[in-house]
Specification:
Layout: E1 7-13, E2 25-32, E3 37-40, E4 55-60, E5 66-73, E6 78-84, H1 94-101, E7 107-110, E8 118-122, H2 128-140, E9 144-150, H3 153-157
Parallel strand pairs: 1-5
Antiparallel strand pairs: 1-2, 2-3, 3-4, 4-5, 6-8, 6-9, 7-8
């Protein structure tokens, strides 16, 4: 099929969250697998319920934009978002967040300099219990706030 291995952007639409970023859409890079499915290639900053490596179904609108319809396959990865507390020991430094979590070898992306949100992908075979313990410790000690945007049973039972 001519579409395979094509890099596309798949767009997600959602209701903006109170006190969060004002966006109501997020575009994620993906590798097209078929006429209407693609594998997500980067970690979502805003969209919940999807992680890097997941397969989503999409429809293409008249402008050629690919809109996600839903997840059809899970890679088993977790999406974790961490925002350093500006008044805390890490300041507004996404690099400091990366350093604290470096032992777990998680790939992460920074949203922007103005909003130092770091989004990580934690593979299903990572030390999920260790990651959870460090995230909890960091929140309790005022380093950061965090949330889990997507996770499977492995995460919740770790």
């Amino acid at each position: 099929m001519e579409h395979e291995d094509e890099n596309i952007k798949v767009w997600f639409r959602f209701v903006p969250r109170e006190g969060w970023l004002p966006q109501d859409t997020e575009g994620l890079w993906a590798t097209r697998l078929s006429a209407d499915t693609a594998r997500i290639r980067n970690v979502p900053f805003l969209q919940n319920g999807v992680a890097e490596g997941d397969v989503v179904r999409f429809r293409t609108d008249s402008d050629g934009r690919h809109w996600a319809l839903g997840r059809v396959g899970s890679a088993g990865n977790c999406t974790i978002r961490v925002v350093p507390v500006p008044s805390g020991p890490l300041g507004r430094s996404p690099q400091a967040v990366h350093r604290r979590l470096a032992a777990f070898d998680l790939g992460g992306e920074v949203f922007s300099e103005d909003f130092p949100l770091v989004a990580f992908t934690a593979p299903a075979d990572a030390d999920l219990a260790g990651i959870k313990a460090l995230l909890k410790q960091g929140q309790e000690e005022g380093w950061w706030q965090y949330e889990v945007g997507c996770a499977g049973d492995e995460w919740w039972s770790a």
